[in-house]
Amino acid sequence: MAKTKTRQRVRKALLLLFFILFPVIMNYLSPYLSISGASKGIISGSLLFFGLLFFSSLLLGRAFCGWVCPGGGAQEVCTLVNDRPVRRKRLDWIKYLIWIPWFAVILFFLIRSGRALSVRSLYQMDTFVSVDSASRYIIYYFVLFLIVIPAAAVGRRTMCHSICWMAPFMILGRKLRNLVRWPALRLKAGTEKCTNCGTCTKNCMMSLEVQEMVEKSRMENSECILCGQCVDSCPQGVIRYSFSRGV
């Protein structure tokens, strides 16, 4: 039990750290800079990072969301205000309505540029620090507003469900790794040990029906961020991390 509590303390400490660093790294997560750069034939630092998220998800799923995402850290702070689970599956589809046209435009610009493409990781940045002037703090607080207001008003990680432009990269990578069935980080459950106490569902940061997943012996869910709350809160140790091929 001490080990599981320590793991969650480490996870939350990492989320808090990257939330504090958000003014430094914000541009590397920017959907605007990626499309602005692509329109000029430039692969920006943010577009490089989105590609890294896709490739990392082939092995780690959406662990980025659960462990180091600054937006995730901000939303988990918001649970102090509103810790209500979000059970509206319709919210999950909003992010695709945002991501599909946005990424289609990026691809159009990149294809149009052809061989003239260049890579500039510091596109529209003077230094490695994203927020380095008073005017950029306005952008920072606007982005922060988009993250924390939905979480504070609706419930746990609402932004992750609804408007996150990074999640689809990892979801697609996760689906690809499941299709080819190579070893990757995932959750496993020993169904025979489950006492149906519902603790896993109650503690899920993404408001998933984890107990139902355990009963079906299928722990795969595109909204799972591998935060390990279900792993570390289960009194029977039913759920565990596994680096395996899955079902």
Keywords:
247 residues, Alpha-Beta Plaits, 2 domains, 13 helices, globular
Compose a concise summary of this entry.
With 247 residues, this protein is mainly alpha-helical. The protein is 55% helix and 7% strand. The chain folds into 2 domains: 2-177, no CATH class; 182-244, Alpha-Beta Plaits (2-Layer Sandwich).
Helix-strand blueprint:
Elements: H1 2-20, H2 22-25, H3 31-39, E1 42-44, H4 45-60, H5 63-67, H6 70-78, H7 94-113, E2 118-120, H8 134-153, H9 158-162, H10 167-180, E3 184-189, H11 199-203, H12 210-215, H13 229-233, E4 239-244
Parallel strand pairs: 1-2
Antiparallel strand pairs: 3-4
Helix pairs in contact: 1-6, 3-7, 4-10, 6-8
Give an account of the 3D structure.
The structure is a single chain. By secondary structure, the chain is mainly alpha-helical. It folds into 2 domains: 176 residues, no CATH class; 63 residues, Alpha-Beta Plaits (2-Layer Sandwich). It contains 13 helices and 4 strands. The strands form 2 sheets. Strands 1-2 form a two-stranded parallel sheet. It has a two-stranded antiparallel ribbon with strand order 3-4. α4 packs parallel to α10. The longest helix has 20 residues. The two termini are 28 Å apart.
